[in-house]
């Protein structure tokens, strides 16, 4: 499958549009497959697939940071992150089948992948010396852009570490370029070899819109499942792409119908260039819940979360006056399971927008008026 890295290769893009968008692509690079671009309705300037992959001048607006979740703080070695006790991340490369315009790691493509290590031997040694690590996530970039031979060698090395029970691969290749999977029998054999009954490989698939689920992507998904992997899916909620309950419900249903369990729905991280895609948090939560209300139990297993610097924070509910959060996972073990309440802020797009002493309180108290400031203890401990 051919890939494109220049906007003038998009034959359906008008020449003056390509010229206008060159400035954006010089800051936030462009990359796409011919297959994925064939899914775009070029007669619709607001087409959601186009919005996922084609640059927009809005991306050059103000705001955002390169490392919105402070991943650098949890980088123990080049290419290895260890934020949560049981899970280590290996950043294997700085390339994807396409560059999503809302990527939270676009710093890898801007900074020439200086956080990535293509030699993961030091990372594997770190994992072997930390018996608390039971899960290893292969990510980047997209691990399926690594050669099959190298990927198989890495999976084999991980399988030699007895305390690691799960290998996860985060990939958008079933959407971007499904032939990478169904045209490579060696890849499927490697997955089959290393995904056993007691030590599974999980494929964490990135699908943002139901139109990405095509006959070709379904073929790739089926082959991943037949190779013995467990398939789950995740997406951020994104303005102009899936920020309505009908679209999100359709996505949840289509995934569940083909045996892909909805896993996480993320609040779009406030990374640089992501402003055009952010939906205010409370609006996004309502979209998420309305979508889930239209699905069966198997299609509504996703949780709406933020990957915050301090941990994975679930948005648990709204009342007339309050928004409620819970730490599903946390960098500090004592924060796991913590339940928090804040006064609602309709304009808030991120957890930090709520975390101000006069507005926060920690539940355990029944949120009387005025609200307690006990919740600020998290910030005092340096969790942010």
Characterise this structure.
The protein has 384 residues and is of the alpha/beta class. The protein has three domains: 3-60, no CATH class; 71-248, Alpha-Beta Barrel (TIM Barrel), CATH 3.20.20.70; 322-380, no CATH class. The chain has 13 helices and 15 strands. It has helices spanning 15-27, 34-37, 48-53, 106-110, 121-128, 148-159, 173-176, 179-182, 185-194, 215-226, 245-257, 281-292, 377-380; strands at residues 3-4, 32-33, 75-77, 80-84, 87-91, 135-139, 166-171, 201-206, 230-237, 261-267, 303-308, 311-318, 322-330, 339-343, 360-362. The protein has a 13-stranded mixed β-sheet. Strand 12 (311-318) and strand 13 form a beta hairpin. Helix 6 (148-159) packs parallel to helix 9 and helix 11 (245-257) crosses helix 12 (281-292). The model is unreliable at 357-384 (pLDDT under 50).
Condensed summary:
With 384 residues, the chain is an alpha/beta fold. It has helices at residues 15-27, 34-37, 48-53, 106-110, 121-128, 148-159, 173-176, 179-182, 185-194, 215-226, 245-257, 281-292, 377-380; strands at 3-4, 32-33, 75-77, 80-84, 87-91, 135-139, 166-171, 201-206, 230-237, 261-267, 303-308, 311-318, 322-330, 339-343, 360-362.
């Amino acid at each position: 499958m051919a890939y494109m890295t220049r906007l003038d290769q998009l034959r359906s893009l008008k020449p003056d549009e390509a010229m206008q968008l060159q400035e954006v692509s010089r800051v936030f690079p462009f990359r796409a497959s011919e297959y994925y671009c064939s899914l775009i309705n070029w007669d619709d300037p607001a087409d959601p697939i186009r919005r996922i992959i084609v640059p927009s001048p809005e991306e050059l607006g103000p705001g955002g940071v390169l490392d919105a979740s402070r991943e650098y703080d949890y980088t123990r070695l080049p290419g290895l992150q260890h934020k949560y006790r049981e899970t280590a991340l290996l950043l294997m490369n700085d390339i994807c089948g396409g560059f999503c315009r809302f990527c939270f790691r676009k710093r890898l493509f801007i900074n020439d992948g200086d956080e990535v290590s293509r030699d993961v031997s030091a990372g594997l040694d770190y994992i072997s010396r930390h018996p608390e690590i039971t899960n290893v996530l292969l990510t980047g970039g997209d691990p399926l852009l690594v050669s099959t031979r190298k990927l198989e060698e890495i999976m084999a090395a991980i399988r030699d570490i007895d305390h690691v029970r799960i290998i996860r691969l985060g990939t958008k290749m079933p959407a971007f370029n499904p032939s990478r999977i169904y045209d490579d029998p060696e890849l499927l054999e490697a997955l089959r070899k290393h995904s056993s009954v007691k030590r599974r490989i999980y494929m964490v698939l990135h699908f943002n819109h139901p139109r990405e689920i095509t006959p070709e992507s379904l073929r790739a998904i089926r082959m991943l499942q037949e190779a013995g992997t467990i398939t789950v899916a995740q997406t951020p909620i994104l303005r102009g792409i899936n920020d309505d309950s009908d679209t999100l419900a359709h996505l949840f249903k289509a995934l569940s119908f083909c045996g892909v369990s909805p896993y996480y729905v993320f609040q779009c991280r406030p990374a640089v260039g992501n402003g055009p895609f952010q939906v205010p948090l409370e609006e996004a939560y309502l979209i998420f819940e309305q979508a889930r209300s239209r699905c069966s139990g198997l299609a509504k297993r996703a949780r709406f979360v933020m990957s915050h610097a301090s941990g994975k924070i679930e948005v648990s509910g709204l009342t007339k006056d309050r928004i409620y959060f819970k730490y599903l996972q946390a960098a500090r073990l004592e924060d796991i399971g913590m339940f928090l309440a804040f006064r609602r802020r309709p304009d808030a797009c991120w957890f930090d927008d709520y975390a101000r002493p006069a507005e926060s309180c920690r539940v355990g108290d029944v949120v009387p008026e005025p609200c307690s400031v006990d919740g600020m203890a998290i910030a005092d401990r340096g969790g942010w």
